[in-house]
């Protein structure tokens, strides 16, 4: 089954990449837009119950995929 | 007294550190990241580079290298543990130091000599220095922007400044919180520094100001900090 993990830097933590893209968009004449650049991690995993998968992927996020100091994460399970 | 200098796949400052320790007359040995026994060592240094390609986040994968169990053990035993640049990032990921290192404020890879001022001497990195002492050492990083959720002002042991010791936003090269260039844990035995003291170890390199920091580390060996 396919699991998608979204890793987002917490809103109160600066995102220099987003700021740079925001400036570039303004320079191109698109006006003001706040930009945050996040990560999408796609996992292909053996089929299991949604609860099992969710528990496992939550642990993966806490241990490795996200940094608890600066990131939030969201898990989407397809199928 | 012997120091382990850990080599991860992608580490590239290990020989600079070895040379610097040799200049100081210290005994050190390179140790591969798969090593699981550091019992013969009195301290450990994680040098700079791009461990495991810096994939996912700097230090995120290196933090799970087999050698890290021993690094964590030594840190808990009060032995000196020092991370330089990428090593600093790994120690933060491992939870041995507070905070995290993000991309530089201006999204530029910074490679130039900068100044830092010592703000505390209760750490293995700064015990031989004096508060207010200004050092010229090279900075060489893209992810050197130190940020922490909690107030870590009492853990900062060196801050970015200019040659006169001015500490403000204009002398902050990468956006680090409070101009932090180096931090330690609460007991002072684990420290991380973003610029490279080992590259400012002899006059021929342009500065020997880094000596005092590695001398501090060397003098901390055999002293238990708990």
Most extensive interface between two protein chains, with residue counts:
A-B, 10 and 21 residues
Assembly annotation: heterodimer
Give the spatial strand order of the biggest sheet of chain B: 2-1-3-4-11-10-9-6-7
CATH homologous superfamily designation of chain A: Phosphoribosylformylglycinamidine synthase subunit PurS
What's the order of the H and E elements of chain B?
A: EHEEHEHEEEEEEEH
Low-confidence stretches of chain B: none
What's the average pLDDT of chain B?
A: 96
- Please state the average pLDDT score of chain A: 94
Q: What class do helices, strands and sheet pairing of chain A give?
A: alpha+beta
Which fold name corresponds to the CATH topology of chain A? Mth169, Chain: A
Shape of chain A: elongated
Beta-strand residue fraction of chain A:
25-35%
* Helix run count of chain B: 4
